[in-house]
Design a protein that fits this description.
The chain has one domain (7-137): Jelly Rolls. A hairpin with a 6-residue loop joins strand 2 and strand 3 (21-22). It is built from one helix and twelve strands, in the order E-E-E-E-E-E-E-E-E-E-E-E-H. It has one helix spanning 126-137; strands at residues 7-10, 13-14, 21-22, 36-41, 49-54, 59-65, 68-73, 78-83, 88-92, 97-101, 108-113, 122-123. A five-stranded antiparallel β-sheet has the order 1-9-6-11-4, with no helix packed on it. The chain has a five-stranded antiparallel β-sheet with strand order 8-7-10-5-12. The protein is mainly β. 9% of the residues lie in helices and 41% in strands. Bound molecules: thymidine-5'-diphosphate (TYD).
Length: 138
């Protein structure tokens, strides 16, 4: 099987002199049902977040404010997605290693997830992730 890929989703935007609006609806813009939302903010300069994979959880990550990079590793190659627009979401399927870095001051990352929080769903060990990823591709 081909390695999985993260992909940028161009979200609907309603540009308006009164201010812009962007929307996400379950199943319409994203290929999963939203079970959970969380956000990462006040990240000190130079810090990394993430640095793990999920066995099952899928997610969409949006830079609501400011900018940061999302580094995606599918076990074969690494890609960097610079996020700096609130109408682009990065869809991250399960089974990909992901890190977030280079947060600008006052950046705000929204993460919409397909599952409830479950510590057991995390793969924190990179070698364990590689083994999981290779097994999935067979
Ligand atoms: P974690 O996912 O490890 O953050 P990051 O990947 O950015 O380093 O979560 C950090 C802490 O927050 C951890 O103690 C668990 C807690 N947490 C929840 O309780 N519920 C959640 O939905 C998330 C994402 C984290």
């Amino acid at each position: 099987m081909e390695p999985k890929q993260a992909k940028i989703i161009d979200l609907p935007k309603f540009f308006d002199e009164r201010g812009n609006l962007t929307v996400i609806e379950n199943a319409r813009e994203i290929p999963f049902t939203i079970r959970r939302a969380y956000w990462v903010y006040d990240v000190p300069g130079g810090e990394h977040r993430g640095g793990h994979a999920y066995r099952n959880n899928q997610e969409l990550i949006v830079a609501l404010s400011g900018s940061f990079d999302i580094i995606i590793d599918n076990g074969v190659e690494r890609q960097v997605f610079p996020m700096n627009r609130s109408y682009f979401g990065l869809y991250v399927p399960s089974g990909l290693w992901r890190e977030m870095a280079n947060f600008s001051t006052n950046s705000l990352a929204l993460i919409l997830s397909s599952t409830a929080y479950d510590e057991a769903d995390y793969l924190y060990d990179y070698d364990e992730f590689l083994a999981f990823s290779q097994h999935e591709r067979k």
